[in-house]
Design brief:
94 residues; mainly beta; Immunoglobulin-like; 2 helices; 6 strands; 56% strand
């Protein structure tokens, strides 16, 4: 069953990430990552960056990771990205 926000988004053809505060994650090769709709940084190291999201967290691993730009709406991570993991809070379907 879809939520009222999802129905609103579908009816008005609005991007779900805007209405639902869902993260928008884009990668350019393995060198840059763009994360929209974040809730801050939980961990920042040269080989690992953990970003807080509305529904959990995103962990990015690699080498020479750098937060090259940060704003209240988005984060740019650059470096050599080897993997990332999206962790949901509360389990699947919540």
């Amino acid at each position: 069953m879809t939520s009222l926000k999802e129905q609103f988004s579908d009816f008005f053809e609005l991007p779900r990430e805007v209405i639902l505060s869902a993260p928008l994650i884009m990668m350019v090769g393995q060198k840059k990552m763009y994360i929209e709709n974040h809730n801050g940084i939980a961990l920042y190291q040269e080989d690992k960056v953990k970003i807080r999201l509305e529904s959990g967290s995103l962990t990015v691993e690699g080498k020479k990771l750098l937060i090259s730009e940060i704003d209240t709406e988005y984060i740019y991570i650059s470096g050599i990205i080897s993997s990332f993991n999206y962790e949901l809070e509360g389990g699947v379907g919540d």
